Amino acid sequence: MSAAEWVRAERQGIADDLLAVGPDAPTLCDGWTARDLAAHLRLREARPDAAIGILVGPAAGWTHHVQEQIAAWPYADLVDAVRNGPPRLSPFSLPGVDERANLVEFAVHREDVRRGQPGWVERDLPEDYADALWDRARQTARLTLRRSPVGITLLRTDGDGGRCVVRAEPPMVTVAGPALELLLRVSGRRAVNVEVTGNEHAVRSFDNLRPGF
Asked: Are 8 and 110 contained in the same domain?
């Protein structure tokens, strides 16, 4: 399957998971329930006027206000809106935008829903999907870990493997795991199956790092 096809499949998957856990279920996004996360996904695609506040601090108040309005919808309608995709006039409806904007978004937020619940298990992903996520994990890491006080190498352990030096400054740590787990870790999630190795100080510094754009 292509990246665009995986995005479409994950859109359906995250909608199914949102319905399964219910609106009040916790997620890995601090302070967000499943309802809040669904409202965030809908806001990104349907309200570009408000979505800018996700990245631009001064607009965060307006973003929060609009997201709360969307979160007040009946939950089933909100999840249906996520499942059905962006409105026709949304920038997300332009060719190629859905794939570029949502491959990481849906992979990470689907796990935010799944892993916010007790007893979650790691998914066994098809190789072509894992390959696409590995590509994005390397790109994402160079942004989110750019302020790291230690050097970082990502070591992929699934599929055909792979290695990516994110920062080449001593002391170094190696973060090893499957592609999805690495993507989640460089996106700031801690409920992940990765192994971090290096000297004690370097590992502690990495563990204390808060990845961010």
From this structure: yes
Query: pLDDT per residue over 131-185, tens digit each?
Result: 999 999 999 999 999 999 999 999 999 999 999 999 999 999 999 999 999 999 9
Q: Are residue 107 and residue 131 in the same domain, yes or no?
A: no
Q: What is the pTM of this model?
A: 0.93
Domain region containing 47:
3-114
Residue with tokens 């937020």: 109
Is 101 a member of any domain?
yes
C-alpha atoms less than 13 angstroms from C-alpha of 171 in its C-beta half-sphere = 11
Task: Kindly state whether residues 64 and 153 are assigned to the same domain.
Answer: no
Structurally, the chain folds into a number of domains equal to 2
Q: Give me the long-range contacts of 148-155 (CB less than 8 A, separation at least 24).
A: 148/205, 148/206, 148/209, 149/205, 149/209, 150/198, 150/202, 150/205, 150/206, 151/202, 152/206, 154/182, 154/186
The 10 Å Cβ neighbour count of residue 130 is 21
CB of 40 closer than 8 Å to CB of 46? no
DSSP E strands: which ranges in the chain? Answer: 151-156, 162-167, 172-177, 195-198
Instruction: Look at residue 137 in the predicted model and tell me its pLDDT.
Output: 97
